[in-house]
């Protein structure tokens, strides 16, 4: 019996060896063909990246040229450009004026103005050119008052460009080079020798002249291709060429043809050697296979149920352990707790991954020290942990959670720089032991997301799930409500204190759904700000406002300035303002009528600050006014008046809650006086009493907005209100 098995096994092994020998004979040719495709694909990807970089550099140069056109003083322009170019990939810059004068940054050659490419930019537009030393120039016309009066030139040095064309593919054995249509090197790699030998290769009589002719035709027509040849040193090489779409330049990629196959012979030898060893060790293998199976199974179980970082249980093991602990227990005897370490990614960025991992291990140990018999815990990945406690009283759970949080932060006692871990705890008391553990874990996660920091932890309630369902329902209703115009604009008047006449209005939005009735802004605005729906809603409200203003113009009625709120979510799209401009032009709204309101908090984001500043400039260029809502809430309000070109500030209603407070009155008076000195209009929000009105008149406030004069009104009621001589306390919402 065993003899037959040995014969069968031998036949199988011999057959496998024969097949492998047969396949190996054709392996090199197959690998070389694969290498051609691989080289072409990598070269094509790299070409796309380089072309994108060229386009990005021209875009950056255009932006800097636009920026440079705003300055008259040469020194101020030079200082500004030096700061701006530090944010780009340019190594230096130059500005060449049509009168022959020029401003040069560090490293820019002073003979740039004589170059044909620079002269061409005065009439032909943006261009890319190479100068001696393989530096690239990105030149863009500099326009002022619609006339080209100079050229902005961004310089990227040879070393910069060599890093751009360097590819990490081909195990470091590939070379890349940019050449022009004549084959002259534009940007060389660090080792240029192989490319300088190409002419000798093309003149070799050993190569197929038709392939060389095809390659030259491809270069002339700007087509990509691959060319395989034998080099002077008898080595086989593959050269892939791809057009960059700039000045007829091509990217050449040179790689060894045997890159994939050079280890084939060694591999075959090792394979045959291993097969021989397998035959000799076959008996031993059969004898030990059972033992290996058992050991492997234990290792697989360990890998499947052990967290590799902490060495404790992972989430899969936690679920199994929970079933053994809680499934047969009475209801409400256990609680599943979800722990999330807030902003842990920032800790990884500030202190490094190793420190972050050490802290996660520290957290796990402290949790283990605080759990009891019949309880368990596990790391669920990243900075998340699950705990199963044998508790049901909320006060006891909160007390234990507090002790765990304190234990986690115990490392601060001897730390030179304290860094407190902010823990968010969500708890689900298990009232249905038969419920799937995945559902219980989801409920604990839901409770964690509702954590507000006012208590040690947040306990799950069915209302939380209901809230999530309602949020999904509101999001699902959004598209239909926009199409059916269930969103309606309301106008809250602004009144001039000098004569009591209307001085404008703020446009607000209200949602009246046919089935759900009125939905409060406090319910849908925060929800829509979590998605792109808020941007669509802002555009909808903006267009409805434009329609109202257009109708006013058609009826020859006075156009009052109107303000509309703009969510900070829009600033994720760098070109968002174009959609608002298109609507303004569609309805032919005059300049200076529409005011866009930004909340003060948007200006505290350092990453967005420059973008917001540039956007405000563009708003003014397109005929919009810009106001700052909730002014005074932030901690650096006065600095904002200096840095941002704001037309109007709206004093937050918090200032007027206790108008009898002398400090509050002094602050308000100071704000109003300062704003007037800076030419900024002031609107007081949330005004409801005669006492507030009297004080604001005394403080010389320009406009007020609030229930004293009017609640937000429908468009029809707003038109009636503006036409009525008595405007106090109209019927509002």
UniProtKB/TrEMBL annotation:
<feature type="transmembrane region" description="Helical">
    <location>
        <begin position="267"/>
        <end position="293"/>
    </location>
</feature>
<dbReference type="Pfam" id="PF00563">
    <property type="entry name" value="EAL"/>
</dbReference>
<dbReference type="InterPro" id="IPR050706">
    <property type="entry name" value="Cyclic-di-GMP_PDE-like"/>
</dbReference>
<feature type="transmembrane region" description="Helical">
    <location>
        <begin position="6"/>
        <end position="25"/>
    </location>
</feature>
<dbReference type="InterPro" id="IPR043128">
    <property type="entry name" value="Rev_trsase/Diguanyl_cyclase"/>
</dbReference>
<dbReference type="InterPro" id="IPR029787">
    <property type="entry name" value="Nucleotide_cyclase"/>
</dbReference>
<keyword id="KW-1133">Transmembrane helix</keyword>
<keyword id="KW-0472">Membrane</keyword>
<keyword id="KW-0812">Transmembrane</keyword>
<feature type="transmembrane region" description="Helical">
    <location>
        <begin position="237"/>
        <end position="255"/>
    </location>
</feature>
<dbReference type="GO" id="GO:0071111">
    <property type="term" value="F:cyclic-guanylate-specific phosphodiesterase activity"/>
</dbReference>
<feature type="domain" description="GGDEF">
    <location>
        <begin position="332"/>
        <end position="462"/>
    </location>
</feature>
<dbReference type="Pfam" id="PF00990">
    <property type="entry name" value="GGDEF"/>
</dbReference>
<dbReference type="InterPro" id="IPR035919">
    <property type="entry name" value="EAL_sf"/>
</dbReference>
<protein>
    <submittedName>
        <fullName>Diguanylate cyclase (GGDEF) domain protein</fullName>
    </submittedName>
</protein>
<dbReference type="InterPro" id="IPR000160">
    <property type="entry name" value="GGDEF_dom"/>
</dbReference>
<feature type="domain" description="EAL">
    <location>
        <begin position="471"/>
        <end position="726"/>
    </location>
</feature>
<dbReference type="InterPro" id="IPR001633">
    <property type="entry name" value="EAL_dom"/>
</dbReference>
